[in-house]
Amino acid sequence: MQRVLGQMRKAINEYGMISEGDRICVGVSGGKDSLVLLTGLLRLRKFIGIGFDVVGLTIDPYFGGTPGDYSSVAELCEREGAEYHILPTQIGQIVFDVRKEPNPCSLCARMRRGALHNEAVRLGCNKIALGHNFDDAVETFIMNLFNEGRLGCFSPKNDLDGKELTLIRPLVLATEKEIRHAARSSELQIVKSKCPADGHTSRQQTKEFLAEMERRDHGFKDRIFGAMRRSGLDGW
Question: Taking a C-beta distance cutoff of 8 angstroms, is the pair 105, 205 a contact?
C-alpha cells in the first residue's frame, strides 16, 4: 500500500488535485480500485499536510432488481471516521430490462456519472475522486484511437461544465497490478459486481489486447503512457 500511497501523493501534487478545505466525494463501486482510492485518501489526509474531508458515495444500480451489499464499505468508513452514503437507483432496470441495450456500458456509465455528480453536489462536495488508474488511461487511449479514430483520454483533473465540481483521479500513476497488491495487503473486502455485462465489454477486449502486446514487447504500455504525458494530451 505504501507504494500506491506514494504514487497518489505524487499525482495529487503534480496535477494540483487537492486544496485546503476540499470536501471530496469518492465514487465507491466496491471494486479494488475504488476501495484502494478511498483507503488511500483516508490515510493520506493524516500526513499529506492538506486539510480535506472525504465522503464515500456508492451509486447502487440495483442490478437484477436487488440492492448490492456494501456493508463492508460502510464498516471501513465507520472505522476511519468518514461519511458514507448509498444512493439507490433504477439504472440496472432501465439499461437491461427497459431499454435492453445491446451495448449497455455507455448508457450505464452516463447514468451513473450523472447520479454521482448530482448527489455529490447535494452532499456539499466540491470535488469527486474517481478510481481510474494507469492501465485505465492506456486502455481508454487505445479504445479512442482504434474505435473512434481520435487521440484522446480522460484527464487527471478537470472541471465540470455548469457545475462547481472538479473531477480528480489520484490513482492515475498506479498500475492495476500495484492496486491489486495494495488491496490484498490491506485486506480490503471487494464487493463483487453483479453487472450482467461484466467481463464481456469492449474494455475487456482492449485489456486482453494490451496484455498480449505487453507479453510480446515488455514496456509497451509504459511507452504509450509516456507519450501521453509528454504530449500534454487532454491535460496530461
Answer: no
